[in-house]
Design brief:
The structure is a homodimer.
Chain A: H1 23-39, H2 45-51, H3 58-70, E1 74-75, E2 84-85, H4 87-97, H5 105-116, H6 121-136, E3 139-143, E4 152-161, E5 164-171, E6 176-182, H7 189-203, H8 211-215, H9 227-242, E7 249-252, H10 268-276, H11 278-286, E8 294-297, E9 309-316, E10 324-331, H12 336-356
The first copy, chain A, binds a DNA duplex (30 and 30 nucleotides) through helix 2 and helix 3.
Chain lengths: ~350, ~350
Amino acid sequence: MPDDGKPDGRLLDTRPSVRPLDERRLAVLRAIVQDYVGTEEPVGSKALVERHNLGVSPATVRNDMAALEEDGFIHQPHTSAGRIPTDKGYRLFVDRLAEVKPMTAPERRAIRHFLEGAVDLDDVVARTVRLLAQLTRQVAVVQYPSLTRSTVRHIELVSLTPTKLMLVLITNTGRVEQRMVDCPGPVGEALLGDLRARLNGMAGGCRLPEVPTVLEDLPAGFEPADRSAVSTVLAVLFETLAEQNEERIMLAGTANLTRFNHDFPLSIRPVLEALEEQVVLLRLLGETGDSAMTVRIGHENAYEGLNSTSVVSVGYGSGDQSVAKLGVIGPTRMDYPGTMGAVRAVARYVGQILAES
Amino acid sequence: MPDDGKPDGRLLDTRPSVRPLDERRLAVLRAIVQDYVGTEEPVGSKALVERHNLGVSPATVRNDMAALEEDGFIHQPHTSAGRIPTDKGYRLFVDRLAEVKPMTAPERRAIRHFLEGAVDLDDVVARTVRLLAQLTRQVAVVQYPSLTRSTVRHIELVSLTPTKLMLVLITNTGRVEQRMVDCPGPVGEALLGDLRARLNGMAGGCRLPEVPTVLEDLPAGFEPADRSAVSTVLAVLFETLAEQNEERIMLAGTANLTRFNHDFPLSIRPVLEALEEQVVLLRLLGETGDSAMTVRIGHENAYEGLNSTSVVSVGYGSGDQSVAKLGVIGPTRMDYPGTMGAVRAVARYVGQILAES
DNA sequence: CTCTGGCACTCAACTGGGCAGAGTGCCAGA
DNA sequence: TCTGGCACTCTGCCCAGTTGAGTGCCAGAG
């Protein structure tokens, strides 16, 4: 058992692994995952040695398989059937056996070209999600750039009727939020202009969460008669900021779910149901680390309906920090290296596009 | 054959019906449709007379069935199986045998209450589509109020950098569209204010399609030095108006498709694909008459993937005219009276809500 | 100690026959 | 014109037998 000394806390085995996984056994697991992902059928020892030159006989492979099964990495549906990887097996595969498959140069060009055609933020998100669904042939999810990390580009006040205003908040990511404001009394143009100027002067460029602190003392700077109107506007503005958690999500590629009717005949329903719940999707993406790519396999997903799916997600953003997440949802039996490559590439390019605009 | 004299062009029979459909035969067809919708299984003569008191024997019903089959209203999957309605049979049912089932008072209250909680246009549409999906247990589609019929409530110009503006268009339906404008040269605050005032003065309250005509001569009223900037802004504004066809649609209830795995095991895919194509959905709703409810059954749908589904749709709007469409998509074997009742009720209440806000 | 070939065993999947049941069409009679 | 009876036709289901892929185990070679 040479060169297996790396400590690896991610191996989910609770007892310290009695049988230190040697190279060949890992190679067998890798081959099983690859074959199973390709054929969608349990893979047997004989087929394995035929398709991969492991340099050993089927009997040897069988011994390794027995060991892998005992450790919970693979599993056989019934005696005298081939093996399929367990969630734990996929986990090991992703952590130690697979490399993210980089996109080819033409693919990268195509991604970039497709995203560059976008005209506004909605379009960027729409194109991204379609692209991701097409590249991975799975269900793609893209979160709109969050308000949390964004900064104020402009705050606009528009008088609709004497007592009714429209408040428009524009962020540096191009997102626009508007709200109606019902003021207690009429608001003159002069006050409106003054308020507009001070709002933008004080809050312009601020991170959104900091805005309430920055503007806290604003009403004090106005005539007592105007303060209630100012406070009303501020209240609505803060409410808008607080509603950042009402974040939007775009979805594409649900038709790809039917590619797995093979063993997905019934389990497609809970997945569709989950996809309709923005809350579930948001939580799903919320569990994504900011910069590193996150892979949640099968039962690692908190939401029960997604127990037979895997989620590959990553943050993206303009500049160096992530402002939102995106990812794909597919069967646990997915092409992890390819999917991770596509997700990473798309996230990078969206970030670039956002930074440019 | 009494009281069957109404001329009915919608009967798809090409040759003038040799056998004038008498009352009982129609009753049999109605019973077949109702039973089949309920049980999802071919319905035989014996079961029919047991469940509906037709006052005749199975043998008689069999004769009627044979006639109905010859005329193409029903069809048997194989000899010695029950009958199922054809698209033509459903058509006759919808046109002449079914009455729209009105919602009960509690249902109406629930609808109204649910929709009244909405805070903005997005929320109205989101709530409507969810509600419709839940009421009909099918896939619901709601189109955003179209820009075509809307009027200008306000146009706002915001200076972001000396040469970069943001144009915000607010319609009376609460929809907000924003676009960036890159001006050829710097634009001062004075010009901006002037332009803003004139835009709103001239175009405020106009129907959107009329705006270009109304504003056509606007640049001529400005200093020659400012005209190129004004023209640029107008160009972007007109472009925004022209992009009304890029209409948005919201969807819900796709998980309901799986309720029909009974015989929908494979045909769910084309439906999901169709649902992902905004263009297809828009065309689908576009075929809806403005005021009357439209029902398209099976092959009556132009889009091939929806050949085994029916679409029930209707226009809705604030006030007396329709500004957009909504509808549901389900299997041809659907509860037409109930679905039509729900669609009609929801459309009415959304209209009311929009008129109030 | 590790790998290999051989062997017996297991079990899902396919096949074909037989049976039951639902439903039909047709015909003679009320 | 409707009804009851009758023979017929299918599908769906159950049952058994067979096939084949795949396994576990073991003894022997390196």
